[in-house]
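Help needed: design a sequence for this.
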């Protein structure tokens, strides 16, 4: 790979999964948490007969 004078920075955190050097913010993957909430809502609806 050829040397360049460009640099890249990535900051990993809790609020956002990653913030790139250009300021692009990538949200945290929260698939499990969303699935848990949907499941709890479905259980609550089924149990409220």
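Sure. Designed sequence:
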């Amino acid at each position: 790979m050829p040397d360049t004078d460009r640099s890249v920075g990535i900051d990993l955190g809790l609020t956002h999964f990653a913030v790139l050097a250009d300021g692009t913010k990538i949200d945290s993957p929260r698939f499990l948490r969303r699935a848990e909430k949907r499941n709890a809502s479905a259980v609550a609806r089924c149990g409220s007969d």
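The chain has one helix and three strands.
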